[in-house]
Amino acid sequence: MPNQGSHEARAYGVVYKEAIRALDLQRAAFDALRARVGFVLSAATIATSFLGCLALQDTSDAGSWVAIALFVGFGAVALSDLALFAEEAHNGTATRISYR
Known about the structure:
Layout (H helix, E strand, L loop, with lengths): L1 H56 L4 H28 L4 H5 L2
Helix pairs in contact: 1-2
């Protein structure tokens, strides 16, 4: 029965490597999604800054305050996205984590 143990260890090794590969693929997909969301948020932040500037030139009404609130909101989301990206950069990939 020594072959049973080595066969079982080999099977666990294959499953482990596939799990690591799946985690790496999930991380890559998440990073791609984060890049796209970051681009959209930066474009929205720039657009709202221009609209907020135009809104403040005239009399301030409800639309002006909505533009300012959107600018602050998009800025906060963009900064939190950057903070999460900086935090994730120190964690490494799934293969690095698995070999610790």
